Each structure stands twice: as C-alpha cells, then as structure tokens.
Amino acid sequence: MSAGNRQEWFPVYRISESALIMRCRGFTLTETLIAILLSALVVGMCTVVLNQAFVSQRQLQQLAQLQQNSHFMLSLLHNELENAAFWAGYSQMQLAASASFPAAPVTDCRQDGMDSGSFPVPARPFITLYAVSASSGRLLNCVTDAQSDSDILQIKRLAGQLLKPEQRRTNRYYLQLQWPEPRFVSSSEALATESWLYPYLHQLFYVQRQQTTDGVVPVLMRKRLSRNQSGQPTITTESVLDGVERLYFEFAIDSDLDGQLNYFLATPAMTAEHWQQQHYRIIGIRFYVLLRATLPDPHYRNNQQYLLGNRTFQAPDDHYRRMVLSSSVAFMTAESSHHD
User: Fold this and answer.
1) Cα dihedral sign, 305-312-242-77
2) How far is Cα of residue 35 from the mean position of the Cα atoms in its chain?
C-alpha cells in the first residue's frame, strides 16, 4: 500500500463542546456554601470538645492539687503538734531555770514583754507554745510579711531520739538532761561522755503572699532556730507549701489541771496566763487550714463562704478552688524516746 493511500489505524476522538464544558466546570456557589457550612460545623464541634477537655483537665488538676496538699498538711501538722508538749518530763519553770543557755539570735522570734525567745532569760517566762493572729507590722520580732487574718504558731519542743555528745550536729541545739535543771547546749560545749541529749527545735509557722509569674500565691512559711557556719545562732526562713491561704488554731484547755479537756479557746481569746501554763494546761490543738489552688481556672468563679471554726473566709469572686482542712491533735507528753 502506497504512502499516499495508507489508512489511519489510530482512532480519532471527538469531544463535543457541551461535554468539554461539563468536564471543566467547578463547584457551584450553593455547593461551596454547603461545604463551608459543614466545615464550620466540624470545626465548631472540635472546638467545643477541646474546650470541654481543657476545662475538665484544669478542674481535675486543681482538685488533685488540693487533695495532695491536704494529705501533706495533715501529716506535717500532726507530726509537729503531737510532740509540741514533749520536754522529757521538765516543766516550763524548770526550763526557765536552766543552768546555762547559748546566746540568742540577733533577730530572735519572741513576744516582747512575755516570752524570752529561743532560750530562757532570767526573770522572764519561757513559753514553749504561743500563737498570735497576724496583722500589719512586725510580729514576734521576726515576722514582717505574714498574711493578715491568719494565725502565726510558735512551737518549742524536743525532737528525735536521745543522743550522746559525739552524735551532735553543728547546725543544731540540744537540751542536756540533768537534774534538777537541764542545760541548752550546742555542738561546741565540752560534755561528759555519759551525758544524754535531745535535739531542740524552735519553729514558727505562718502564711505569706508571694508574687510569681502566675500571680499572687499564698505560701506556708517556716522560721526556725539554727546555727550558721561560723557557729552563730540564727533564724532561717523557708517556704514549706504553696497554696496555704489561712491557718487558724483553737487550743484545748485543762483549766483545773486534772488532765481532762474543759474547753477550747481560739487564738485571739488566749491570755498570758494560758500561755504560761501555770494555772492552766494546753493539752491539745484543733487546727483549720484553708487550701487554695495555685493556678486559676478562667471557667470557674468562687464566691463561696468557708467556715473555719468560729471564723469565716469569704472568697473574693476569683477563679481559684479551695478546700477546708481541719483536725484535732492531743499532745503526747510521754517521757519515752520520740522519732521525728
């Protein structure tokens, strides 16, 4: 077959103009609007789900933090308060008549006109348990930044087990057991090898407001007696737990010295005679702690009123969840060894 007469064996496709137009056209306006609406509904549903998840997560975080802090505070206060009256059988008068005592810190924690501070001072009461309701200004000679309308608690007590002189630590003070009057000593005094000692603690607990990057946070603070590297007495300050907003105490009073509870008194109702414990005995403490979450929840508002014994706290319509913790502690006065 010649080239001029060859037949084309390849098929020829012909597309009509209408089919070409149908194949090339996009979505109509109605279809586009429907697609946008459906997309918006899906995005909205996802946003609601994510927002609810965020709200639930923040709520669970706050509740978990409050629960965890409540366990810590119960353990801390019970441990500190159960042994608040333990002095190995010595009375406050015997302690005040101590044969010798170290020098006091320059800024010691004491109630002027009533308490001698960390160590006994001649002709002045040595008060082992004391509390005051915080206000503005310097309190107990060493606290300047306590949260108003919250209590400050001061505890002096013995801790731990009986020790021999060679077991002393350089940063602590001790009570040497000898009759009729004991001696307050440090690790510097030369003692007979047959001497026995108890570690001595002088501590204050109070609430302070601290500014952080996330806002103002209430913090449980502690001040305590210590010795610095040069051997000088000092009062150290440390934060114990974030989220403690209020501390209130009520004291169990034995008014007829028969060892039985007669009544409770809140801190503002206590007198010098109660603290000196000559005609009264403090045999226990009931405490109230108001805990607050440390981070706000924008989806929660708190304007509740909280009852803490005979005192109340009105939440300032903020975004923090709170919890009231309360318990009672009877003092242990046994003369056996104590672990701390």
Assistant:
1) negative
2) 55
207 three-class SS:
strand
CB 253 within 8 A of CB 230: no
Q: Is the pTM of this model over 0.85?
A: no
pLDDT tens per residue, range 286-323: 999 999 999 899 889 999 999 999 999 999 999 999 99
Q: Which two tokens stand for residue 22?
A: 């149908």
How many Å apart are CA 332 and CA 83, to the nearest integer? 5
What SS3 class is residue 253? strand
Does the pLDDT of residue 81 top 60, yes or no? yes
Is residue 298 reached through a cis peptide bond, with omega within 30 degrees of 0 on the bond before it?
A: no
In contact, 154 and 129? CB cutoff 8 Å: yes
The C-alpha atoms of residue 174 and residue 197 are separated, in whole angstroms, by 6
Burial class (CB in 10 A: 0-12, 13-18, 19+), 130: buried
- Amino acid letter at 313? F
Quick one: tokens of 67? 């629960």
**Which residues fall within 8 angstroms of residue 48, CB to CB, at 6 or more apart?**
none
pLDDT at 25: 59
